[in-house]
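It is worth pausing here to work through a concrete case rather than discussing structure prediction in the abstract. The textbook approach is simple: state the sequence, then state the predicted structure, then interpret. We follow exactly that order.
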Amino acid sequence: MMNFLRRALNILVRPRSEWRIIKAERTSTAALFFSYILAICGIQLLANLALSAQPFAGSAGPKLLGLFTWRDLVLALLAFIENIINIFVFGAILNAICSRFIAQTGRTAGYKIAAYASTVLVIPILFLAAPTWFFKAVAIASIVYFIYLVYLAVVIVMDIPGKPAAWYASGSLAAAIAALWIVDSAFDRFIDYVNTALNGAAHGMH
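Step two, the predicted structure:
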């Protein structure tokens, strides 16, 4: 837990030196998944559950453990799975677009960048209960910093020079936006289906 917190803090406050440390690490994709990706997505899961719990406005009906409904739990778990998929999709895109530069850093380079850069994207969800204007400001700042973290990682972790790195990073981000839009659309449809089914089951119980 301390290693996770130290890595997350270092990525946020001193990313340049932390990316150099990350580049030197020989971490398998499986180790990265269990040591960091699950934790990052788990924070988002807990935040979603906290927002659906009392005293926040959650779903109507009996609360599981007095906090949230089964519907809240299922939808939060679906969002958790989607977040994991999004990280791996972005990592795969980085590896594919920057493949000629990752011979020395290995095929985990893209997944490292996707996972560790995503740290900053967790911050806005922690402020969902804040005033709308404040949440939007935090979200915009997080996205801008995420783009910077990806660019910096492409330069340091993948050893791509500054100007080409900007093109490779922007190309990877553009491809990721398109791919993740497809993933998100598919999940939105599935979530709508699950939501309808759960609402129907809830009405059937009354």
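Step three, interpretation. Residues 131 and 158 are 39 Å apart (CA to CA). Residues 162-205 form the longest helix (44 residues).
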